[in-house]
Amino acid sequence: MSLLTLFSFSSGAAYFGSLELIDAEQLNKEREKYIVLDVRTAEEFKAGHIAGAVNIPHKNISEHIETIKTWQDKTIVVHCKSGYRAGKAESVLTSNKITNMVHLDGDFDGWQDNNQPIVKD
């Protein structure tokens, strides 16, 4: 398993791999600017997810590229449970020329650790 490294730059922006990170506070403050893409399994998503998130498991991302390309008016916030699967999904999206993405800082584990609200189906 490869590990993606988190870097901070003098600008104050943080990056996950090559993507900028967004934290829960910023996401909640400007929610209308974002589409949250949860790349965990359907079972994980049903057990709890961020309100309004779209679930496309990372293994199925390539099947949904055309739909995702229609989201160009928003920034896509990609996350999984802890980062590994999101990194895989982000690679597929990037290779398909989708660049309007950021990575959720801490992923879903971090969201829960920060006592952010979740919904269950």
From TrEMBL:
Domain Rhodanese: 30-120
Taxonomic superkingdom: Bacteria
Pfam families named among the record's database cross-references: Rhodanese
InterPro entries (alphabetical): GlpE_sulfurtransferase, Rhodanese-like_dom, Rhodanese-like_dom_sf
Name of the featured protein: Rhodanese-like domain-containing protein
Organism: Psychrosphaera algicola
